[in-house]
Amino acid sequence: MNNYSLARSSNVIERIPVFIISGFLGSGKTTLLNRLLSHAPQSAVIINEFGATPIDQQLLREHKVPLSTLVGGCLCCQVIGSLTPLLKNLRMAWDSGDRPFERVIIETSGVANPEPVLDILLRERWLAARYSLQGVIATVSASMDTDHFDYFPEAQAQIAWADTVVMTQTDLATAEAIAKLDARLSVLAPAATRLTAVQGELDHNALLNLPNKFRRLRNTELPELPDHGFSSITLQLEHPLPWERMQKTLEYLIAHYPKQLVRVKGMVYTPGQNQPLLVQGGAGRLYPATRLPVRTSDDGVGRLVIITQGEVKGLAEELMTQLRSHNV
């Protein structure tokens, strides 16, 4: 009589859970990630920023987590080749010793289609054997006009690929706008789990314990995605500026370029304050600035990143002219 053992093989590779956080520019991805890390600190984080200067990592400065930043492009095109070696390095560090993290969270750029990231995690055999994709979480701002889905195909793709859609910034939207967005989400992602975040807060267990979804692997290689047409400029502010002047300047730009200017973010300094100000804007409004705690690595140089749909000629010069003006 033959005896067969069902014991688990010692050669079985333990896979690290991976979560992808997607969502259009200004939809609250980093705020959600910040809250999530408060509940799940044993996480390695990969942040992708479209601009050449990383700003989102400043929101995570209170968390001591393994943090990698991919800048200068988005994960759906320019820097996609950087993700595979980064994930391999993280895995080798995990295998080599004390396993400093329990999961990996990838925050994609606000202009990125998440499909190429999924393609890497599911198709590359070495990674697929060592990482387990848990799901795609997409944030969407309740204050965003639903016309954005028609104007920006990236926003549609982010929602369409999501396993869970988190509606954010509901305090900034009317009940009518929320209902309109809710109806559009039902069309774009009818099978996705729907959650609402209030000031970035929601049940973290609902995000970290996503139900497993069946994903069909494509039979062909992922086609090259077309250039999405976004541009970014980065300004360095060597000297502190009064917040009132900067606020009026940014409000002026948002008002004068309502279609082209899709995202403003930065960390700036004001006179008499060591704590930098985190500045964010999008969807036609400038959000209230918040003070960040001081870090020893702060250099006192302010940085502003502006992302536009297409190139806006002379925008950097106009911004500097407005900042120098006392009459804005």
Automatic annotation (TrEMBL):
CobW C-terminal domain span: 230-324
Entry GO terms, CC: cytoplasm
Taxonomic superkingdom: Bacteria
Record keywords, A-Z: Chaperone, Hydrolase, Nucleotide-binding
Keyword Calcium attributed: no
Catalytic activity of the protein: GTP + H2O = GDP + phosphate + H(+)
Role according to the record: Zinc chaperone that directly transfers zinc cofactor to target proteins, thereby activating them. Zinc is transferred from the CXCC motif in the GTPase domain to the zinc binding site in target proteins in a process requiring GTP hydrolysis.
Record-given protein name: G3E family GTPase
Protein species of origin: Methylobacter tundripaludum
